[in-house]
């Protein structure tokens, strides 16, 4: 029979070993995947890539830079996302094509894909469910479409996704870049996720809000924030897509997306400045918010800014996926649901 005193050193040894393994796992997880917030600085990402590079041979969670560069169809220089990606990118970055990872059956651009198609796109990019993904834009624009891709990944439940703030600063700070043809990645099998519909506002829901504007019993005071330029919101400037009238939804608040960005770096303003922007526009953080824009892209810039400023409850914020492109094509001219002027 083994004595109790003989068992004590063994138990102590096992306890210490378990404690060390737990601590070691926590430390490794922290060095691999920990960022200070949803927005990631260039230096934070550079440090993380040194510790957990996106190599195909690693079975551990990796940090994957994901370029989401995209330009409006009326871009005066005719630029495309894939062109600027080939010209200059973060080493080993992958390219997310915002014009292809969509609901291709929809007549409206950039509508969310279904879960199966999203999983297929992630598999083709070689992204694993456990990877930490940092999405970024072109240096030319600073911030434009990366928040949309980040939001899309969150809608489909990817657990670790961040936005680089931003690639222009990455370049200015002399951090490494590469150029040339895109290197191939080893495809994987990304699990088909569940779509979080609570993050998405449909046409029918937004129509109810617009119809109930100024009705004391209507829509629980839901606020609609429009990220388009003032000229498009007011109906003075044309939409970039031919044939669409400009204007805005009844009661919507115009907050052009560039008003939440630094005018020089095009990075997001600090949280305190973001709070000032929303407060000055009369946005009530206690009421639900729906962000909209032209096609659901820059609306996600406002959603990201709201998150960074901790302005309003995340459970009460949604993005109108179809945005103005869907709205202007589906409402009837005699509905009085397209307003112009102030």
UniProtKB/TrEMBL annotation:
Does the keyword Repeat feature in the UniProt annotation?
yes
Q: Which UniProt keywords apply?
A: Repeat, Transferase
State the Pfam families in the record.
Rhodanese
Q: Entry's PROSITE patterns? A: RHODANESE_3
A single GO molecular-function term is: thiosulfate-cyanide sulfurtransferase activity
Q: Which domain of life is it from?
A: Eukaryota
Give the residue spans that cross the bilayer: none
Cellular component GO terms held in the UniProt record = mitochondrion
* Record domain Rhodanese: where: 76-179, 218-336
UniProt-recorded name of the protein = Rhodanese-like protein
Q: Which organism is it from?
A: Trichocladium antarcticum
